[in-house]
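User: Structure please.
Assistant: Input sequence and predicted structure:
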Amino acid sequence: MRILDRYILKEVLLAFLFGIFAFSAVFIGSGTLLRIAQYVTQYGASFSAVVRLFVYSMPAIMLWTFPMSMLLATLLVFGKLSGASEITAMKSCGISFYRIIRPVVIMGIVVSIFAIAFDEYVVPWANQAYADVINYEIKNNAAPQSREHIILKEIKDGNIQRLVYARRFDVEKNRMEMITMQDFEEGNLVRVENADYADWTNNEWILHNGVIYSLSNGEMSYTMHFGTQKLPIQENPDNIIREQKKPEEMTMKELEAQIKIMRSQYVDTTDLEIELYQRITVPLASFIFTLIGAPLGLQPNRNSSSIGFGLSIIIIFIYYAFMTIASVIGRMGIPPAYAVWLPNIIGAVIGCYLIKKAAR
């Protein structure tokens, strides 16, 4: 059985690597190269910048190819085994289909775990580096744009000392609007300041029309109103904008922190929650596609590579279309966690049904 496991794993692994290269080439040719060409023609991007853009774009592309490649690999390999009557020979020796697919299922789990770690530690860093090359090198430090939901943190020895949240940054006025500042001591919230806005004046931020709440043991001790007051942060407007990250540039830990902060300000966090849950569901699709691809590969006339490739494209299209629909549903009132997990749950049920049917 160990020889059989190694044989199947070798075939699936080779097909999986082929799928990564094939699908990555499709993504690169259909989108990445066109965008890079635009930066060259419109902004005169240097060769060094072009190379870095290409390298930094690869992690995000590869993440999406992992599930696709697992589906293609299982379809091709089990189609080949079925077409050569090897599956029939294995079953005639008393080996059940559940045992045959066990090494492939384990590989699907390993790929999913690796993809989750890859999405947490590599993809956000690469996305941020990609954006930095565009904004601060190719576009020659273009002026910052107005943004929503500005968050600044002051951390010392791993503990947060101060947290500043602004609902909006107006680049034309150099102004942060609807500000909340929280001060912490030994991890406990001791003071909250709210202000209508803060202007960048004489190289410092000045709060206007605010109120200070002092807290002791979680309860408010006294309140003080003020007309103007200095905001104790040193970052200038350009640095503040540069420090802000888009959701795709954040790790899951950063997304969770962002959601918590925005919820405390009664801001809708649906989009961030969908992004957070997809950090798990999209990589986990590698395992789901393994459950679907292995039994489908046993169907008649699956020994053709072109048929296997075409079938994988159809299944991938259906899955990601359903994933998009689920995201829309999550924005319509259904809890995002339920909506985002729905495609994987349905895929797992279908995969288990197909495996049970193939094992008869």
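Residues 63 and 118 are 8 Å apart (CA to CA).
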